[in-house]
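Researcher: Good morning. I'm working through a list of sequences from a screen, and I'd like to move beyond sequence-only analysis. For each chain I'm collecting a predicted structure so we can compare shapes side by side. This is the next one on the list. No need for commentary yet; just the structure.
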Amino acid sequence: MLATRGRRLLLAARPVGLGGGWGPRSGRPESDIHSIKPLDGVKILDLTRVLAGPFATMNLGDLGAEIIKVERPGVGDDTRAWGPPFVGKESTYFLSVNRNKKSIVVNIKDPKGVKIIKELAAVCDVFVENFVPGKLSSVGLGYKDIDTIAPHIIYCSITGYGQTGPLSQRAGYDAIASAVSGLMHITGPKDGDPVRPGVAMTDLATGLYAYGAIMAGLLQRQKTGKGLFIDCNLLSSQVACLTHVAANYLISQKEAERWGTAHGSIVPYQAFKTKDGYLVVGAGNDQQFSTVCKILNLPELIKDSKYKTNYLRVKNRKQLIKILSLRFEEELTSTWLSLFEGSGVPYGPINNIKSVFAEPQVLHNGLIMEMQHPSVGKISVPGPAVRYSQFKIAEASPPPLLGQHTIHILKEVLKYDDKAIGELLSAGVVTQHETK
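Model: Good morning. Structure tokens for this chain:
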């Protein structure tokens, strides 16, 4: 069974410190060591759509896992329709989080479709889904169903609010979870309305939690030989990410408020309007504050008793920020950037997205990933955030067309013959992308 082989590979690939693994002591050539990726040989059955799940599985694919993305007949992943903008018929939203995946279209409302999913689960290592709790169980694809036929499986369920409880049956959308979790309450201008973050941070945080949890699940299976169930949800992820804001309330019952670009506990730490834009400056200690005052040619503030410590600066925030703001508005952003260079003070401009991808450090970090898409040609998407010394991130394959790999997966992974595949296609249980 392929999943068993994948498990043996994972067991064999333990670090030296765990009693084995790759490297000079394993007898493998150095060139082989650098071509091996952490998740080579691991198959992931991905029944997720929209953002949290696809973001998690895309990151796993970057580490070498084979991602089999299961999509609905006709429409596929919801984000295929989320636009404009589109490039050709492809949504740029979908393109942004679905590299390194193979798409198979399966109707899981049909018992024959359910049978295909179970067969795929039996030869995969990880099963990821983001349906409302109970939905997959109703068609025979819940954790207990899959565990019976594939006890090795790492089954990760991503929901809005968790598997049980008063909100568990609600659909999970980033904006709603962002509101319920308190993130919107602390986001926005101080005297203005709550604001949704510019990207779906609750979805993305949940995707990263799921990504880490799946890696932990694979390590746990390495130790026990058994699979497990992972409950990952938007609400829990975002509440956990409230960190010090949550602790402020839980420890001292201090209710949070909105600060715009500023910080509730550090002053100055915010955006300042310049003559032609904005500059964010953070003085996390007294020495940095002194440096800021020197750069702004406001030395009198250094000795002012009202601003001697961060506690006092927070206490006298309004007056201090007014003085600093007036000074920052006197010069261009480029002038301030030059003056702050090498100062040791954290600072930076508020870039628009065009400026982000012209930023030398962004380019140096390789954060633009180019690939050749089968229908729209060359595309670029944000690249992986992390680099590793002993291996390179998997060379990216483009986000798949809807059902692009259906026949390939049935034939190569499940060993279906042409007749069986033809019958499934004719019955509409599966569909294959039509190449024109």
